[in-house]
Design a protein that fits this description.
Largest sheet: 22 strands, antiparallel, barrel
Shape: globular
Number of helices: 6
């Protein structure tokens, strides 16, 4: 085979292809162009072009009696199986085939079918309100501490974190992905859960001559209804010259994905006293949709020069660029004063509301209906541009006649991320109350029959507020490493390896917060404008088409600002005052004045300066790492022998950060008077260092050729994210609405939120075993129990602490604030579990049935994390949540078919409930509880305030995918693939309620997607 296509890298690995290298070595940076396949006993062997052994008289895809020649995806599965079998520690891998099999859009989706690996289908693990079609975070054995590597070296994205955003990386550039579940001393430190190493092709992977491969794909989603194109091309040339072998390789990939997702979200169920009894009534709901489009491009180049057989120089350039252009529409009711009539409502045994035909706002002074229900809404638009570049130069001097080998590399990684978002809010009053039913698979909201007519009248909509958020982040890594290995002949100790690494990682992040500010409201200097005053092209009726694929009933279609208006990201224009004299005398409802000549809805005087305020909005972080290690390989690799490696890595870490604590300005009613916090910023910084010793031992025992038993112990570490280490933060005040129109908010409590530049690294003591059985090529079985004990986990916890606030006029006061801070857990977390899995092809079946195979894996995980805290709905602090990101049950099952010109599979991936956050935005407010009408229980004139921070769980979720490829000729193939074929619904759940009950927080659905592609290789 002359040339290997990298189409959609593992775009359809229904299960992991698992790993191969020389015994007790790490997986090499290159892989064989075509995997070797062991022939049937007694078969005559002759070499085949490209390196694969083929039984005499047989061509690829042919079979004769007991002889089966394996090519394509099955060959790649077997190659990866060999990588796992011969590795020096516990790993799994996915190896590229010459064409994709399943419609995986990203590395995250590729990895979800690897045993013990799960992905998060949200924008981030701690952001359960925003769905991600391709998935974002990756957990290995339930742990989020997963280090990212490119060809064995560190790589990252400049997003306040430590790891690469795997969804940003185009899979077409990859040759293999290795998942390290245990460690050895010569691996770069990092990854309490493990490491994921992305492996790229290099020119010397190919035989001499010119090679080219290309692919193209067209896909469409049933909600987005947009056709997307993807493609890639790889070109490689290798020469033999008088100065040695020289090779060059270039690979370019492009992919666009358009999708839509629908969501419904319920506010926390607040404790509410009704008719002498306590019930738990939701504070409202949100429904809407997000339209998402990303464009991902990848460029990769490699040059190799081997002046001699002993020496090879390799230079690589890798760039991944991810552009996102998305928008959302949301309609919501959010109130802490909602009540229902128990006589016509349904509750469960814990008093939690199931359904009610009518919600109403009530007056806390009388407990009688009081005031209208206002439906808010927002139109958001956002765009981002993330770019990561890796420049690496390495050498490998390994003479065949010398026991000494030397390897080294220098590397620079530059990453940047620019993000802009703007939300524009509006309000409309309900003609009457609304009803909500939570008893079905999807929530149902009902409104009075005359509501749609009111919702269609632009004069009923009020321009309310705007909120921008911008980020500009840049990160850099410079590193160098040198490794020496000396091998012994005829000795129990087979080799000793020593090495060192120096790395300096810095990141400069700028963010301007989420500056919600009112537009013109009549009381703030500009008139209250309605949609009847909208300038041409600024508002529209948005139709939620095919909502939840027609399974959900919407209360109404509503009007919103247009995407074109919001996507200008021009807050100055948006908040400009209307012309002088516009609607004079009716400043609180200007509908009769008609449309404005141009955009400008007031409120400019209340916004913060546009853009970044420097240096207040800037945070700097730097980590300098110096590491050295020694490792000894020992034992015999023959059957019946014991082998392995033992070593230790010593790591010295220096963390330094600087930023500002910003006090947000606010005017509020407290202690019987109006008070005002001034806006100011105070510089803050911190510096600390740590030295850690990371021992590791891995022992292998092979009683026979087809059985391997592994055992290992190692200590790994994770550095806190730069977001956790940031020196910046905020201080402010929380209020409730003033019953007096236009009056300042009623004080409830002071707030604080900060990072912690003095956080310690998380340490994990890991015990691993693996029982592996390889009866024949393509058939394998593994059983792998594990145990981990983690200390100093960073937790984002709601607590209370003293802060000093400054009032207008210069007075200061030390007050108690509800603080959301990062700190190291004071108690250890434990993780224990087991993986079991395997693969088999039914070659023993007659004829075409012999092409069937099955692959599956299951992972059980149990965890305890008493150091993490949350506050239940009654404000009681608890520590009984599991470890974040960890599902108790995970499984993958794939039906495979590989025979001659046909390659097909159907794959299902499923994970059980897992904790996303114990302190998530939207479920951590404070709310007033009134034990009786008009009860005043504190000096601030409000009821007792209950501070909550409810745990949010991702509910059970499974997804079905399928794909089939037809190999028309040796150089051309055609494929059809489908994603999310079962139209799965992702749910989240709220905890912290009586009886340990979990209640629906949100529901998400996204596209079912079909794609078709072609692949060429010469």
């Amino acid at each position: 085979m002359s040339g290997v296509s990298l189409m959609a890298l593992m775009a359809g690995v229904a299960g992991p292809a698992l790993a191969a290298s020389p015994a007790d070595e790490h997986v090499p940076a290159t892989i064989e162009e075509t995997p070797r396949v062991q022939p049937a006993a007694g078969a005559d062997i002759r070499p085949r072009e490209g390196g694969q052994d083929v039984p005499a008289g047989q061509e690829a895809g042919a079979d004769d009696g007991n002889v089966i020649t394996v090519t394509g995806r099955r060959a790649a599965l077997q190659a990866a199986e060999d990588r796992k079998r011969n590795a020096g520690t516990i790993i799994d891998s996915v190896v590229a085939d010459d064409a994709g099999k399943l419609p995986d859009n990203s590395i995250t989706e590729v990895l979800q079918r690897v045993s013990g690996v799960t992905i998060v289908r949200f924008a981030a693990l701690n952001d359960p309100d925003h769905y991600s079609v391709e998935g974002s975070g990756i957990q290995v054995r339930g742990l989020t501490g997963v280090a990212s590597r490119l060809n064995g070296r560190e790589i990252f994205s400049a997003n306040n974190g430590r790891a690469l955003q795997f969804a940003d990386v185009t899979p077409e550039l990859m040759a293999a992905v290795d998942v390290y579940k245990a460690s050895t001393a010569d691996l770069i430190e990092g990854g309490t859960g493990g490491q994921i190493d992305l492996r790229t092709k290099v020119p010397f992977d190919f035989s001499p001559g010119f090679h080219v491969s290309a692919n193209g794909e067209l896909s469409v989603g049933d909600l987005a209804e947009k056709a997307d194109l993807s493609g890639s091309i790889l070109v490689s040339q290798r020469w033999s010259t008088p100065i040695g072998d020289i090779g060059i390789l270039a690979d370019v990939a492009y992919s666009r994905l358009s999708s839509a997702s629908h969501f419904f979200r319920v506010e926390p169920y607040f404790r509410t006293r009704i008719a002498g009894s306590d019930y738990y009534v939701p504070g409202g709901y949100t429904y809407g949709e997000e339209q998402f489009q990303r464009t991902r491009t990848g460029i990769y180049g490699a040059v190799q020069w081997a002046p001699s057989e002993a020496l090879t120089f390799t230079g690589t350039f890798f760039q991944s660029r991810y552009k996102n252009r998305s928008g959302d529409w949301g309609a919501f009711v959010s109130s802490q004063s909602l009540a229902v009539n128990p006589a016509d409502s349904k509750f469960d045994d814990n008093g939690v509301l199931i359904s009610s035909p009518s919600f109403y706002n009530r007056d806390p002074a009388t407990f009688l209906p009081g005031g209208t229900i206002t439906s808010g809404g927002n139109k958001g638009a956002y765009s981002s541009n993330t770019r990561t570049r890796d420049y690496s130069l390495s050498f490998d001097w390994s003479p065949a006649d010398s026991p000494l080998s030397v390897k080294g590399a220098i590397q620079r990684v530059d990453s940047s991320q620019v993000f802009s978002r703007l939300d524009v809010f509006r309000d409309i009053q309900f003609p009457a109350g609304f009803g909500m039913d939570m008893s079905g698979d999807l929530p149902r909201v009902t409104v009075p029959g005359n509501a749609q007519a009111a919702f269609a009248n632009p004069a009923n909509y009020f321009w309310t507020a705007s909120m921008p958020h911008d980020e500009d982040n840049k990160g850099r890594l410079d590193s160098a490493n040198l490794d020496l290995e000396y091998k012994f002949d005829d000795s129990f100790f087979r080799a000793i390896k020593v090495g060192g690494r120096y790395a300096e990682r810095s990141e400069r992040d700028m963010a301007n917060g989420y500056n919600w500010a009112a537009l013109g409201r009549g009381w703030n200097g500009d008139p209250q404008l309605t949609y009847a005053n909208a300038a041409p092209g600024d508002v529209e009726l948005h139709v939620f088409d095919n909502f939840f694929h027609g399974q959900a009933v919407l209360p109404a279609n509503l009007m919103f600002p247009t995407d074109a208006l919001v996507r200008r990201f021009d807050r100055a224009q948006l908040t400009a005052s209307p012309p002088t004299g516009f609607c004079t005398g009716r400043e609180f409802d200007c509908s009769a004045s008609g449309p404005l000549p141009q955009t400008g809805y007031g409120g400019h005087g209340g916004i913060r300066p546009i853009g970044f305020i420097l240096p207040d909005d800037r945070v700097d972080n730097k980590t300098v790492t110096t590491a050295g290690y020694a490792l000894v390989r020992f034992g015999s690799t023959e059957p019946g022998g014991i082998s392995g490696n033992i070593g230790a890595r010593v790591v010295h870490i220096e963390n330094e950060g600087s930023g500002y604590i910003r006090q947000n300005p606010a005017i509020f009613f407290r202690n019987g008077q109006v008070q005002e916090l001034v806006g100011e910023a105070v510089p803050r910084g911190g510096k600390t260092s740590f030295t850690r010793v990371l021992p590791s031992i891995n022992v292998d025992f092979s009683p026979t050729d087809d059985i391997k038993i592994r055992a290992g112990y190692n200590i790994t570490l994770d550095l806190p994210t730069f977001n956790a280490l940031r020196a910046s933060g905020t201080v402010g005040v929380a209020t409730t609405s003033n019953p007096v129109p236009g009056g300042p908010g009623l004080f409830t409590n002071f707030t604080a939120e900060t990072g912690n530049p003095l956080l310690k690294p998380t340490m994990s003591n890991n015990f691993d075993m693996s029982f592996e059985y390889y009866p024949e090529p393509g058939t394998s079985f593994h059983l792998a129990p594990f145990y981990k004990r983690l200390t100093d986990l960073p937790i984002f916890s709601l607590t209370e602490r003293q802060v000093t606030v400054r009032f207008a006029g210069g007075a200061t006061e030390t007050v108690t604030a509800a603080a959301t801070d990062y700190l190291n857990a004071t108690e250890a977390a434990t993780v224990k579990g087991v993986e079991v899995g395997g693969r088999i092809f039914f070659d023993m079946l007659p004829g075409w049935l012999g092409g069937f195979g099955f692959e599956g894996n299951y992972t059980f995980i149990d965890s305890k994390n008493p150091g993490d805290l949350y506050r239940d709905i009654n404000g009681v602090t608890r520590n009984d949540a599991p470890l974040v990101g960890m599902s108790r049950h995970n499984f993958n099952a794939s039906l495979l078919y590989e025979r001659k010109a046909i390659s097909a599979r159907i794959a299902y991936s499923w994970r059980s409930r897992y904790l996303q956050s114990t302190n998530s935005n939207g479920t951590n407010p404070s709310y007033p509880y009134y034990s009786a009408p008009g009860v005043v229980t504190n000096a601030n004139g409000t009821a007792n305030n209950t501070q909550i921070a409810l745990p949010i769980y991702g509910a059970n979720y499974g997804q079905l995918e399928a794909g089939i490829r037809f190999k028309i000729t040796e150089n051309f193939s055609f494929s059809v693939q489908g994603t999310n074929l079962m139209n799965s619904t992702q749910r989240t759940l709220m905890g912290g309620y009586p009886g340990g009950g979990l209640y629906g927080r949100s529901w998400f659905q996204t596209d079912r997607r079909i794609s078709t592609g072609i692949n060429l290789a010469f």
